[in-house]
């Protein structure tokens, strides 16, 4: 806990910076006479207050639903750059975490940091590999090249201190400043708190890296480094060192004649595959965390680092998101409005027709342009402006996704200005939708649920029999009521049998058609079998329906 004196000193520092940059207008006071834009003044103040406030500002920059657009765009320019702490101090942290001298683990260790940020810094090293005596020339490097990521000394205390202050300030703002209540500052701080505390556990980051690595192992699009768990701890992470060209160094990439069109399209494909295929995406893909493998400049690939921030969605959010994207680009604005209401993103009493009209007002001017000229960033900003009028409920689980999407689009357009993001993304989402709601997807879900059904149904039957034997059924089920129940069960069983048979025939027909299509097209014989299965399925369902009508 922060002692009262230290807390008072920190609050006084925050207020002093607040006054120096004349930020009172954010609390409802008249605009400042300072000639600098308000967004720039807020950004400079956050940079002066330190790393926790910088990261908080970066998180706010992804929330144009609650911040003015000019402020959100300015906060997006915040840079998480701080001077490194001494290499000897890093050695001490590593030795304390591993419980042994650094020379017992690493054959080489560079005291000068490769990179430094507010939470941790990175050092180059080479692991010591145990070899039999005389197994190689003396002095020859034996272990793999690695990077060692080390938490900054005292960072946990600093983060807890400043997050506690942010929580207190947010609570005061909600109570004392009427205009601040609409921004829900306590909820915003709570979202940020989860992100920053996750970054303080480097074992969590290692687990994120390994899951991404498994998802993309063997892919020609992107490579994720290996984690060395034996010498990793919550404050120290050791990973394979990768060698590539930073995405920031566009001049060097141009000098090597890298195909920027392929690079941009591959970046978009990676993101949408991570979101829809894997449901686990790298949510901090700024240029400093992305390198390029230029072994083949015509077909370049990516190398990823820094896995402290990742995201995933629920099945329902995945489906609603895919349907929203597809409906938007098919100009089916009514479906977009319906999806927002169905998912709870806008209040249930929202009039779909009014919301549809508002969405059309945003989208039609945009979609009159060629798809390659459509900016997802501008599109989302305009959509948020409209959604405010309908009390749009911010979805915390989508904030990271939105931020990452805007980053990916910005990088892609920087690499290749004519990037048609939709051309790359649409086939991925359509394939994902077919896999989820098509016959193959339904069959997969059914097969996954069979064990649970097989385990549950006998237990339910035994429970019913016990109640019958004990006479604890409701009175309506005694005597004639029980006979009626038996009749209903037999009738429902027969009808369900016909329905299951019909569904089985249809699934079989769909699977045969899919296999035949993958084999170069259906033959005459397979068409006959597919038709027979489809007809059998239809007749079975008709039998189930007619039996219900003629009971």
Give an account of the 3D structure.
Mean pLDDT is 78; it is low at 132-136. The chain is globular. By secondary structure, the chain is of the alpha+beta class. Helix 2 runs parallel beside helix 4 (69-75), helix 11 runs antiparallel to helix 16 (396-415) and helix 12 (315-329) packs antiparallel against helix 13 (333-342). A hairpin with a 7-residue loop joins strand 9 and strand 10. It folds into three domains: 4-81 and 159-198, no CATH class; 243-437, no CATH class; 439-549. It has helices at 4-20, 38-49, 51-60, 69-75, 87-98, 155-176, 178-181, 185-199, 202-216, 250-255, 260-278, 315-329, 333-342, 352-367, 376-388, 396-415, 421-437, 439-470, 480-518, 524-549, and strands spanning 106-109, 115-116, 120-127, 145-151, 222-223, 236-240, 245-246, 281-282, 290-293, 301-304, 310-311.
User: What profile does the largest beta sheet have?
Assistant: 5 strands, antiparallel
Question: Could you list the spans in which at least 5 consecutive residues all have pLDDT below 50?
Answer: 132-136
- Ends: how far apart? 72 Å
Question: How large is the count of helical segments?
Answer: 20
Principal-axes geometry comes out as: globular
SS-based class: alpha+beta
Strand content: 5-15%
What is the average per-residue confidence, as pLDDT, rounded to a whole number? 78
Query: What is the number of strand segments?
Result: 11
Rg, alpha carbons: 30 Å
